[in-house]
Specification:
With about 325 residues, this protein is of the alpha/beta class. The protein folds into two domains: about 180 residues, 3-Layer(aba) Sandwich (Isopropylmalate Dehydrogenase), CATH 3.40.718.10; about 140 residues, 3-Layer(aba) Sandwich (Isopropylmalate Dehydrogenase), CATH 3.40.718.10. The protein has eleven helices and twelve strands. The strands form two sheets. It has a ten-stranded mixed beta sheet with strand order 2-1-3-12-11-4-5-10-8-9, with helices on both faces. Strands 6-7 form a two-stranded antiparallel sheet. It is globular. GO terms for molecular function: isocitrate dehydrogenase (NAD+) activity; magnesium ion binding; NAD binding. Belongs to the isocitrate and isopropylmalate dehydrogenases family. Keywords: Oxidoreductase.
Length: about 325
């Protein structure tokens, strides 16, 4: 039976880099059927709203989506589209892997880290935002539940077992945020002590120290699990270790729905100029294939992508080359 994938091309450079990923998926023989829909600026222009019901229905129907970067207009009344999608479909786990590829402009080699970020709770969720009438005091609410902390920590440990990884580091600020971060850390300790995870080394680290340690010696990390806001920051830091956000994909995973995405912005300044590096969304499609247990095809794409980047030929400007999106994509297709 042919698998249908919901495709959200996105804004700015989104359509061009998503098209590159789809060409590569087709070339490797995935035989997907694609249902295209809009969100973000494109949806606002075409359908009068940022997140149309048609898009929500297609995500719910197909259960798997590939998404380009989206722009949320700045202004009152607009919330993050990505946050809305995560809440709508309870996509509680955000999985951000980074892995060194030779040929990128990075300071390190042999980095291989996965950040597992709780995706629906905490300060980043935007709950309880209040500002007084005088515009002098602002408040926001951070809520961490036992259920939310348990499922994200279990997700991290289960991933470690599945991928043959050795270590999980819980990143927190329990020394100061004794209620929210404290609860997260206590639950992480409880999960780590379970017999089923006895073969996985457990480490706990305060977030500011974790950021310093990542910069000084990233090879000490394997899987990082943390709360929503810290995960947003730490995962971008990790992307910087391997060449930037253009080299980092993201997966938002719930009980039975998953959305895979490029994690960088829509870069409207280079949209339509054939300059964008499609690697992030190509890597997101690799994550999608792994989620669908199509590991052989995922490995073929990964190998072809690495060969192109390592060669230094036909790579985009951010990778030190002069090629455009089209030329880079063609080079990967040729390797396949």
């Amino acid at each position: 039976m042919t698998k249908r994938i919901t495709v959200i091309p996105g804004d700015g450079i989104g359509p061009s880099i998503v098209d590159a990923a789809l060409q590569i998926l087709d070339k490797v023989g995935c035989e997907f059927k694609y249902d295209f829909c809009d969100a973000g600026i494109a949806a606002l222009e075409n359908e009068g709203e940022l997140l149309p019901q048609k898009t929500l229905d297609l995500i719910n129907q197909n259960k798997v989506a590939l998404k380009g970067p989206l722009t949320t207009p700045i202004g009152e009344g607009f919330t993050s589209i990505n946050v809305t999608l995560r809440k709508k479909f309870n996509l509680y786990a955000n999985m951000r892997p980074v892995k060194s590829i030779k040929g990128t402009r990075s300071r390190y080699e042999n980095v291989d880290i996965v950040t597992i970020r709780e995706n629906t709770q905490g300060l980043y969720s935007g709950e309880g935002q209040i500002i007084n009438d005088e515009d002098t005091v602002a408040e926001a609410t951070s809520v961490i539940t036992r259920e939310g902390a348990e499922r994200i920590v279990r997700f991290a440990f289960d991933l470690a077992i599945k991928e043959g990884r050795k270590k999980v580091t819980a990143v927190h600020k329990a020394n100061i945020l004794k209620s929210t971060s404290g609860l997260f850390l206590r639950i992480a300790r409880e999960i780590a002590a379970l017999d089923k995870y006895s073969q996985i080394e457990f480490q706990e680290m305060i977030v500011d120290n974790a950021c310093m340690q990542l910069v000084m010696n990233p090879k000490q990390f394997d899987i990082i699990v943390t709360t929503n806001l810290f995960g947003d920051i730490v995962s971008d830091l990790c992307a910087g270790l391997v060449g930037g956000l253009g080299m980092a994909p993201g997966a938002n995973i719930g009980k039975d729905i998953a959305i895979f995405e490029a994690v960088h912005g829509s870069a409207p300044d280079i949209a339509g100029k054939n300059l964008a590096n499609p690697t992030s969304v190509i890597l997101a499609s690799v994550q999608m294939l792994e989620y669908l247990n199509m590991n052989d095809k995922a490995q073929k794409i990964m190998q072809a992508l690495k060969q192109v980047i390592e060669s230094g030929e036909s790579v985009t400007r951010d990778l030190g080359g002069k090629a455009g999106t089209t030329e880079f994509t063609q080079a990967v297709l040729s390797k396949l």
